[in-house]
């Protein structure tokens, strides 16, 4: 199991995530240090929460000084609700796995690990499996913890250009998205979701626009496929 | 915030983040997923990617940016072209970052 968890295929899949998480986690670490967290505290948060946007928003709220613990926790819940969609989608590839496996795998689900695992699972050459998927999650998670702690410790010394490095993950998402363009309806559904998310961003905060746009667009796509068939 | 409040925060965040992650696999991996749900789930990835990507590209620090000098947008067209043509994620990212960097110098 271990040998299949961390092998060349897994590293080959995880590197774009590392490339994105190093600067992103570093930036999170810098912010955490400014807010007053110790390296241990941000390391623990990165281990237990493992969510980019969730941690950034929580840290910003901590820094503002006027936010209560409960308001931060509730906000985090809303921001991370979208993981529900990811874990539901991946569940089909994890049929019959043990509770222990699923419990551990679940902790590693993020925008990025979801995208990469799904892409690997649905590749035409079926060489991906649950062991590799959890290996990818763990390697991505480890990088996240490392870069957050690093940013907290040396944040004052190093300055990085965040614009270009944060674009790495956007580029990764575009690439992975395009691999799903196997029918016209899938393309149109995605574009529709994108427009909807932008429109909804005016009224829905904390990434809820992503959740709402996804639910509506996926439903429309599903209904259109049904009507096209009959 | 005091360190005990930070600890409470972290633990609370851990619990509320974990629940949406773990419940669907625990439930769905032990039952036969209805065909209509499966068909719906097929459209979730493209929708999530579309939503995430559009928000990343068109939203800047000063709100929406639909102009033709939007570096995110221009670099993304490069990524898309390379991805569709080569089917290689690595090439798409490398060319995208190169385009982004070049556009930063010009614009």
Largest interface: A-B, 93 and 68 residues
SS summary, helix count of chain A: 12
Strand content of chain B: under 5%
Mean pLDDT of chain A: 88
Form type of chain B = extended
Based on DSSP secondary structure assignment, what is the total number of beta strands of chain A?
0
What topology, given as strand order, has the largest sheet of chain B? 1-2
Q: Please count the beta strands of chain B (DSSP E, at least 2 residues each).
A: 2
What are the secondary-structure elements of chain B, in order, as H or E?
Answer: HHHEEHH
Q: What's the number of domains of chain A? A: 2
Distance between the termini of chain B: 42 Å
Question: Oligomeric state of the chains?
Answer: heterodimer
**Rough outline of chain A:** globular
Distance separating the two termini of chain A: 45 Å
Strand content of chain A: under 5%
Percent helix of chain B? over 70%
Helix content of chain A: over 70%
| Main sheet attributes: strand count, strand direction, barrel closure of chain A | none
Plain-language structure description:
The complex is a heterodimer of chains A (230) and B (107). Chain A is mainly alpha-helical. Chain A has two domains: 2-180, no CATH class; 181-230, no CATH class. Chain A contains twelve helices and no strands. In chain A, helix 2 (8-35) packs antiparallel against helix 10. The mean pLDDT of chain A is 88. In chain B, helix 4 runs antiparallel to helix 5. A two-stranded antiparallel ribbon of chain B has the order 1-2. Chain B is built from five helices and two strands; from the N terminus they run H-H-H-E-E-H-H. The longest helix of chain B is centred in the first third of the chain and has 26 residues, at 3-28. Chain B has helices at 3-28, 35-42, 44-58, 71-86, 89-106; strands spanning 59-60, 63-64. Chain B folds into two domains: 1-31, no CATH class; 35-106, no CATH class. The model of chain B has no long low-confidence stretch (mean pLDDT 88). By secondary structure, chain B is mainly alpha-helical. At the A-B interface, helix 2, helix 3, helix 4, helix 5 and helix 6 of A face helix 1, helix 2, helix 3, helix 4 and helix 5 of B.
């Amino acid at each position: 199991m271990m040998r299949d968890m961390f092998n060349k295929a897994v590293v080959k899949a995880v590197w774009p995530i590392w490339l994105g998480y190093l600067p992103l986690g570093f930036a999170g670490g810098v912010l955490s240090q400014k807010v007053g967290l110790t390296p241990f505290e941000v390391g623990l948060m990165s281990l237990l929460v493992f969510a980019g946007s969730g941690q950034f928003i929580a840290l910003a709220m901590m820094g503002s000084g006027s936010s209560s613990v409960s308001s931060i926790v509730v906000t985090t819940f809303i921001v991370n609700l979208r993981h529900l969609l990811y874990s539901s989608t991946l569940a089909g590839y994890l049929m019959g796995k043990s509770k222990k496996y699923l419990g551990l795998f679940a902790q590693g689900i993020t925008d990025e690990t979801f995208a990469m695992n799904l892409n690997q699972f649905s590749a035409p050459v079926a060489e991906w499996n649950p062991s590799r998927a959890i290996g990818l999650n763990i390697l991505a998670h480890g990088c996240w913890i490392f870069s957050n702690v690093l940013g907290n410790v040396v944040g004052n010394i190093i300055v990085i250009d965040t614009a270009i490095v944060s674009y790495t993950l956007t580029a990764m998402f575009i690439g992975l998205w395009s691999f799903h363009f196997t029918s016209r309806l899938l393309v149109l559904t995605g574009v529709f979701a994108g427009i909807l998310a932008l429109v909804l961003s005016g009224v829905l905060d904390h990434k809820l626009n992503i959740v709402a746009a996804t639910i509506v667009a996926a439903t429309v796509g599903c209904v259109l496929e049904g009507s096209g068939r009959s | 915030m005091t360190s005990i409040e930070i600890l409470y925060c972290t633990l609370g965040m851990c619990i509320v983040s974990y629940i949406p992650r773990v419940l669907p696999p625990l439930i769905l991996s032990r039952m036969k997923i209805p065909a209509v749900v499966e068909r719906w789930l097929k459209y979730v990835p493209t929708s999530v990617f579309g939503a995430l990507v559009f928000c990343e590209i068109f939203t800047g620090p000063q709100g929406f940016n639909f102009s033709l000098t939007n570096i995110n947008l221009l670099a993304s067209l490069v990524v898309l072209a390379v991805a569709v043509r080569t089917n290689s994620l690595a090439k798409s990212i490398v060319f995208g970052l190169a385009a982004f960097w070049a556009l930063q110098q010009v614009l």
